[in-house]
Amino acid sequence: MSLINLLDLLPSELETLAESLGGPRYRGRQLASWIYAKGVTDIRAMSDLPREFRETLAARAEVGVPELERRTPSQDGSQKLVFRYRDGARVQSVLMPDDDRLTLCLSTQVGCGFSCAFCFTGTMGLERNLGAGEIIGQVLGARATLAPGARITHVVYMGMGEPLANYAATVKSIKLLTDPQALGFSPRRITVSTVGLVSGIEKLAKENLRVNLAISLHATSNEIRDRIMPVNKGFAIGGAPAACKRFPLPFRQRMTFEYVLLEGVNDAPEDARRLVRLLKGIRAKINLIPFNDWEGSEFSRPPLPRILAFQSVLLEHGIRATVRWSKGEDIGAACGQLREAVTV
Ligand code: SF4
């Protein structure tokens, strides 16, 4: 019999589980406190739960934190963490410090089926979706590596996989991140990144989760986007910005658009002007990501003057645009560089 992963359950569901095992509901709250506040993963070590309850629970359930198989520090302070699940599947998470922030980048799938041409993860294909508890397991696993007093302040869903293609698990993991009895993050500190799956964006808009949304746009014409992001063939380019206009943005928040700059492909001033037109009417900010090289890639990073020229067109039109020099480039942990052998 396979064990229930307690990280798959919201605190209210832990209460129901406790009740189904013959205990009072508040045992579920105690469980949540052991797992999330105290970071204890051994059910038998949860000392204020009755011994019999612990034994019954441990026979049926576990706290499924994946094994940290490798931890690679970068010169810039970020760290790539390789996690391995019970079935041998591996994903990567990245911890990125920046002043007083510590951002954790999470994976939602083992591999990815979207095959964006500039992305190393896309060359893996999709192996499988992660469950909500497996996503949350990365948070607990990453947290366990931190020095005393350090804490993760922000979470981004920008690792391996397309979060909205694993919709139910992504949404449940957000609920676990934000539940005050679980991880208690403010939704404003959580960003979900998507290639622009319109139906997913519209569904997410109705969940009222109040998280930030980032759209990986990367091109301004169907011709170029079809070439570098095959997903565009099913969702023509204007679809995602249109869905963004209907997305309930938290007060004073802006919709983020990610734009990887590929030399000679999407980095001309004309592309920048088309981008301005495409985002008209949206409270947008644009992250320009100079391409991060990986072996075998057909693309290269534009020279600095071209990157800055692209940015200035956006700034001249009043669009907030920042050049994001990815962290972890030297360890293959930068945007679009994540790849890991899927199983042993
Ligand atoms: S950029 Fe995102 S959606 Fe595209 S292949 Fe990479 S992981 Fe998948």
Structure description:
The structure is a single chain. Strand 10 (190-194), helix 6 (198-207) and strand 11 form a beta-alpha-beta unit. 45% of the residues are buried. The chain has helices at 11-20, 26-37, 51-60, 132-143, 167-178, 198-207, 222-228, 239-245, 269-278, 304-316; strands spanning 4-5, 61-62, 67-73, 79-84, 90-98, 101-105, 109-112, 125-129, 154-157, 190-194, 212-216, 255-261, 284-290, 320-323. It is an alpha/beta fold and 344 residues long. It has a 10-stranded mixed beta sheet with strand order 3-4-5-6-9-10-11-12-13-14, with helices on one face. The chain has a two-stranded parallel sheet with strand order 1-2. A two-stranded antiparallel sheet has the order 7-8. Bound molecules: iron/sulfur cluster (SF4). Iron/sulfur cluster binds next to loops.
Descriptors:
344 residues; alpha/beta; 10-stranded mixed beta sheet; two-stranded parallel sheet; 10 helices; binds iron/sulfur cluster
Brief description of this entry?
With 344 residues, the chain is an alpha/beta fold.
Secondary-structure blueprint:
Layout: E1 4-5, H1 11-20, H2 26-37, H3 51-60, E2 61-62, E3 67-73, E4 79-84, E5 90-98, E6 101-105, E7 109-112, E8 125-129, H4 132-143, E9 154-157, H5 167-178, E10 190-194, H6 198-207, E11 212-216, H7 222-228, H8 239-245, E12 255-261, H9 269-278, E13 284-290, H10 304-316, E14 320-323
Parallel strand pairs: 1-2, 6-9, 9-10, 10-11, 11-12, 12-13, 13-14
Antiparallel strand pairs: 3-4, 4-5, 5-6, 7-8
Helix pairs in contact: 1-2, 4-5, 9-10
